[in-house]
Amino acid sequence: MGGKKKPTISQAEKALLRESQKQGRKGRIKEMSRVEKKVSGVIPPNPKDKNIIKEIKRMRFLTPYILASRYNLRISVAKDFLEELHRQGVITQVSSSRYVKIYKPT
């Protein structure tokens, strides 16, 4: 019933790192445990920019996820950007649910 509990991932990584430092293989283990984080942008593109409007008009439909992945934005910022384009008349709302609104270019 008792016994040693399984360590968490971060505890296991720290133990590996300590062990490798003792043996002098510090660089190799650090490279394996290094993870790059990608930070999403908070500032949306300018909704009046002609290049962006031209690119949006070529799309078949628009969702916040599509915009967020294309312009490296947060989903909430992409939702606000789509609402602004809708107010300007660049896009029209096709469908909406509780969570997602779908737009198409006019």
Give the SSE map.
Blueprint: H1 9-23, H2 26-33, H3 50-57, H4 64-71, H5 75-88, E1 91-96, E2 101-105
Antiparallel strand pairs: 1-2
Helix pairs in contact: 1-2, 4-5
What does this structure look like?
This protein is mainly alpha-helical. The protein has two domains: 8-37, no CATH class; 50-105, Arc Repressor Mutant, subunit A, CATH 1.10.10. Helices cover 50% and strands 10% of the residues. It is built from five helices and two strands. It has helices at residues 9-23, 26-33, 50-57, 64-71, 75-88; strands spanning 91-96, 101-105. Strands 1-2 form a two-stranded antiparallel ribbon. A hairpin with a 4-residue loop joins β1 and β2. The longest helix has 15 residues, at 9-23. It is elongated and about 65 Å long. The chain starts with 8 loop residues before the first helix and ends with a strand.
Shape: elongated
Query: Got a strand count?
Result: 2
Largest sheet: 2 strands, antiparallel
Count of distinct structural domains: 2
Structural category: mainly alpha
**Portion in strands:** 5-15%
What is the CATH T-level topology of the largest domain? Arc Repressor Mutant, subunit A
Helix content: 40-55%
Q: Quote the average pLDDT.
A: 86
Question: What's the helix count?
Answer: 5
**Terminal CA distance:** 66 Å
